[in-house]
Amino acid sequence: MSSKDSLQRFLFEHAAIRGELVRLNATWQEVLQRHAYPEPVKNLLGEMMAASALLSAMLKFDGSLIMQIQGSGPLTLAVAECSSQRTLRAIANWHEDVSGGALQQLVGKGSLAITIEPRQGRRYQGIVDVSVGDLSLAIEDYMHRSQQLETKMWLSVDETQATGLLLQKLPEPEGFDKNILVEEDADAWNRITTLAGTVHKDELANLPFEQLLRRLFYEEDVRLFEAEPVSFRCSCSKDRVRNTLRMLGYEEITSLFEERPTVSVNCEFCNHLYEFDRVDIEELFASGVKVDGSQVKH
After folding, report:
1. pTM over 0.90
2. Which residues span the domain enclosing 144?
3. How far lies 180's CA from each of 183, 186, 200, in Å?
């Protein structure tokens, strides 16, 4: 399989370290076609998409991983979401001219929230600030604080694609005796992350994954798993919009008809327009269907 629009996992056979590579081409272009983002915003959103795809590989259930940055700077909100089916969507909002490209310049005083949301069961959210430098460092800090997992991440974005490399130190099994490790194995994390740190952005963007791993870890025994396809898909639907309107209430919705013939709702992620006339609204509230709050998220 081509490494375009794919996520591929790998393991080091003689070290408790796993890795992932992701490359988003058409998936990234689908997002760019829907909104005209300033260059710094576009770059950050591409990094977030690649990072959310990498982290989504941790999901062992049916659900989504949502990465969200909120701040007081020119960029007020950026969201990237990747489902356990490897479908992605993303959106960003800004309120003034954006010039600087550094994360703190874009966000100002802000935070990074990562939410793990299963379709069934409890959601989990962890939050860190974004004062540590760039998105990779913020995510590494999040993984260390919230998941107690040593993680390193490298991200790259250009006009055509968003790419990423992740390394993660696997947790030690309960009762594991560190004394059984030979000296070389004990140094594996430092050695392998140092090797990965030599990656160039053009290699991350262009080399086939198998060739990239050979270049970075030529003396390591690496097992590369089959690539998984990744694609753009928005989870919006008319039913979800209907649930949202129902939650707003009959009086608030019908008051909108005083100024317009229809109620229009536009999905910010995919730009799909949903329209409801007065008959639609009357049928909506006459149905008496119970609103499930867990289904309202859009």
Report:
1. no
2. 6-232
3. 9, 10, 35
